[in-house]
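Onboarding guide, step 5: your first structure request.
Type a short instruction followed by the sequence, for example:

Predict the 3D structure of this protein.
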Amino acid sequence: MPDVYDALADPVRRQILDLVRERERSVNEIVEACRLPQPGVSKQLRYLHEAGLVTSRPEGPKRIYSLRPEPLAEVDAWLANYRRAWVGHLDALEKALDEEARRSRRRTR
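The system replies with structure tokens like these:
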């Protein structure tokens, strides 16, 4: 069974997730949006389903796919530490740029 990180590694699968994040979609809608052959999209949807990132339900002759956000909570928790580091670096950069701007204004007076 593929894991969430493997599923997210592929740009086509991320594109599909972006589509079903917006709203539920049929396979045909995803095929049209991705501009990929139906068998390729179905393969990626199966992978996402096995990773637990999407669910599907029948609607007449169609299958409708939607996002399952719960597995993404694990990724979000893992990224939280990196977010804190990014924020710290960005805060330091902002402080340095502000200081440089103050020095520059003093020199031009």
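Each response can be followed by summary notes, for example: Residues 19 and 29 are 9 Å apart (CA to CA).
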